[in-house]
Each structure stands twice: as C-alpha cells, then as structure tokens.
C-alpha cells in the first residue's frame, strides 16, 4: 500500500533485482559499463465519459481544486510528456471514454470525444462497459471510422475513426470464440517491449442493455489477463501492463495518491493475477487511488478527465523486466493555457449543435438532486430527481399503455438539476442513454419479487408516486438464485394508487428497456409479459418538465420503514 504523505506510491525492487544489483562491480568504470535501465512513462486516465468541456458542480472538482476539460487535459498531457523523455511516453486509458456523455459529445455518437482524445495523443485504451452501449458493430465503427449507419456524418465531415487502439481481451464473439477486438498490443521503447492487455469487467452484460452485448461472451478478468500474459511472454515481453475497466475504492480518509482500506473487485482480481503482470491501470468506480496490491502497482484516475496518473517505469535493458514502478495522480487544473486545437474542436461541434442545446424545456422551483436518502443506515432510499423521472415515465405511458406504476434505476440518473430554467442539454445530461420505455404485465407476486431483488442487487428502484410500500430492516434477504425468498418488503404493504396489491392480480408497469432486459441484476423483470415499447426516456422526461413546470422536489415517502409505519 502507498504511504500517506508520500508523493508517489512505488513497487520496489524484487528480491532478484536487489540481489543482482548487489553483485555488480563497485568501481565507477565498471558501473558505467552496465547498461542503464530504460525509463518509460505511462500517462493514464479512465472514465472520461465524453466530458469535453469542464464538468460542472462537484463533478468538476477533485482534491479541493476545479479540474477537467479536454482543453486543459491536452495541455497537462503535453507538459507531462515534455517533463519526461517524449519518445519514451505512452498514453493509455482504462475504458468508458465514451457513453453517458454530455450532449456535446453524445449528439454526435461520441465522435468528438474520440477525435479529441486522439488529438491529445492517446495510444491505447481498454474497452469499458459504456463502449458497448450501442452494440459491438457501433464500437467497431468508433474504432475504424465511417459515418453512422442511421444519422450519417452528423457534423458534415467524414469520421476517420480512433487514432488510438482499443483493446478488448475478454469480450469474445459467442459464435466463433474469437476476441471482438485486439486483446493486447506490444509497444517498443528503446529496444524493450511493453505489453498492454485491455479488458472490461466480466459483469458488463449485467449493466449494459441486452442489445448492446448481443452475440458476445465476457470472461473472468484475472484468468484472461493471465492467459494473455503467458502469450506475451512467449513473444519476449516481460513488462506487462493491464488496462482494466474494473476497480475498487479506498476509505474516505484517503487522498488521491493513497490506498487506505482498499476494497472492491480490483483487490481480488489483482491478487489472482500472474506475478509477471507489473501494473494495473483500473477504472469503473470513478475513484482515485494509488496502490501496491500483490506486488503490482494498481492505479485509478477518478473520472471525467480530472486526473492523469503519471507512472514511471524503470526497465532492465537486458532482460526487459521492470526494476521499479511508481505513480502519481496529477490534478488536471484549469490554471494552464487551453490547447487551441481542442478549443477549435469544441467550438466546431457547438456550432453544429446550434440552438438545440440551449432550448428551454421547463423550470424547477428548487434543485432536484440525484442523491439517495439514507434508509436504515445505507443509501438505499429514494432520490428527488429519481422520483420525478419515475413520475415522468408513468405520465408517458399511463393513458398510452395503461400503466399504473413506473420504476427507474438509480444508475440511469446521471446529474442533478439546479433550480430555475432547464435546458434541453441539462435534461439530456440527466438522462443520456436514449433507453426506450417498456410497459409490461407483472402479477402482484412478481412485483413483490422485483422489490425483494433490490436488496440482493444493492440497488433501489425509484418508484412513481402511485407506488408505496414498507421495508422491514430485520427481514431476510433473498438470494441471487431466489430473490423472491426475501422478506424485506412487508407483505400487504405494497399499494398502487392507494390500493393494496393483490399477488394474483396483473398490473401494467413501465420501466426502461435496460431494466426490462434484466439490467442491474433485476432478472425478475424479464418475467414480464405483453411488452410494448414506447418513447425514448429523455423525451418522456422533457415532456414532463414542460407540462408540469415549475417542478418541485417530491416528498421522499414512497418507501417507508417499519420504524415509520409500525406493524398493526
């Protein structure tokens, strides 16, 4: 683990390296004759999510400083390269460069982000779960170029593809068993080979719509990394870096270069990785950390381009082995000059986007936040904005599809809304996925099962105003195999429109297509029948904001506990 207060976290010399150094001659002439190690600098980022412009609010700060924006990111990258030996610098990323992006990028299928990061000098990137949002064919187009099959070249210029290489070692075509994209790359620096293996998390199918991962199979991260590490070693590569879109989190007391009480999937994955793997650049959790796990340097640069991880490797020129590795998370401050080429790119796309982004679609009478309330000690409760979105989805499907209730997944609520006028761009930032609404039939018993599954997945569905129920903190939690066995939701407490739900009756319920396909682990929703696909969720949200303005924050009283509603 890193030592608090130190500027860098380092993986020290191996015992073999120390022994070897101890055996060298001590005279200056003999020492000078020994080949000097090759210095290699890796500049790493992750979870950029199309944030070309500086993120706003808390998303635009880190370590007490305002940070982010590709104009500043490009300048910082250039300065870091200049500080190192430029030809020995490799720029890498650990997934989710695109997807869940602000309108400026998303309106053009994230082509602006790929263009900007290519121009900023990115060399290699792993895929992340959001790279699959629009499916495998679209990801290949993003890599290779060509106009969008439906929207064409929306900005009027050809899309040339990524100027960097996406790596995808653990996403395989189910029909052939072959990787969807190149699993690894070999980069030569002054005669030594550095291997990069790129992967997303194995659980990608559970957090991406089924259409996005159709025809693909995802494999275990550590097993896949070890497999390709062996292949790289057979090719003479001894320095191996994994770019992995999976991560963890440290304790709240840890700073951006600390590793305090590290938890999460990355710990187990790193512990199962082969000793030949030297560095793991991770992501997905939007956290910052700088760790030594199982003798490997494990880093993450938070999200939205607010940090760059500056990683220094010393590599034995003769053996190709890493002698030492050290890292430093650097804040992408906004006190440097903007990169003029990035400014020109942003201006060009903003001009094409035109008045659409600034169109006012509604007004809020107070701020609507996505922050979840605390429910029996954990943040598993409702959120003001989540409830508003559920209400909007019900309003879009009650008359049209006969829906009586709606539920929204928390991961689909991406930003807060400030008080006052709401623009289309702001509404888009809240709901950027373009999911369709799906209305389906569920029995009352199936509805109870869906609600019990919340406590298995650790995710609360935001209910529409027609829904109410009571949770018993002392109840039992079901299992992944049988979520219906749980007793957290008090039987008889679930109401729709004020009437108790009958387990044998059928109810029309609206969710988005991500949830209806079992997303976020809500497999119980896949039992729904008579599915009818409706409008895009963003369109429903915009229509609701327009019709209901000014929109106030709803009361958080749709989910209550037995402490609030004692048993009769």
Structure description:
This protein has 568 residues and is of the alpha/beta class. The strands form 7 sheets. Strands 1-17-16-2-5-6-7 form a 7-stranded mixed sheet, covered by helices on one side. Helix 6 links the parallel strand 6 and strand 7. It is 25% helix and 25% strand.
Q: Which bin fits the share of residues in helices?
A: 25-40%
- The helix count comes to 16
Give the spatial strand order of the biggest sheet: 1-17-16-2-5-6-7
Radius of gyration: 25 Å
Strand content: 25-35%
Distance, first to last CA: 52 Å
Shape: globular
Number of strands: 28
Mean pLDDT: 92
pLDDT < 50 stretches: 1-7, 12-25
Biggest pleated sheet = 7 strands, mixed
Q: What class would the helix/strand composition place it in?
A: alpha/beta
Annotate the secondary structure layout.
Blueprint: E1 9-11, H1 15-22, H2 28-33, E2 38-45, E3 61-62, E4 65-66, H3 70-83, E5 89-94, H4 103-106, H5 111-119, E6 124-126, H6 136-144, E7 165-167, E8 171-173, E9 184-189, E10 192-200, H7 204-207, E11 216-218, H8 221-234, E12 239-245, H9 265-272, E13 277-282, E14 288-293, E15 296-301, E16 307-315, E17 322-331, H10 340-353, E18 360-364, H11 384-395, H12 398-401, E19 405-408, E20 420-423, H13 424-430, E21 436-443, H14 444-457, E22 462-463, E23 467-471, E24 495-496, E25 499-500, E26 506-512, H15 513-516, E27 529-536, H16 537-548, E28 559-561
Parallel strand pairs: 2-5, 5-6, 6-7, 10-12, 12-13, 13-15, 19-26, 23-28
Antiparallel strand pairs: 1-17, 2-16, 3-4, 8-11, 9-10, 14-15, 16-17, 18-20, 19-22, 21-26, 21-27, 23-24, 24-25
Helix pairs in contact: 11-16
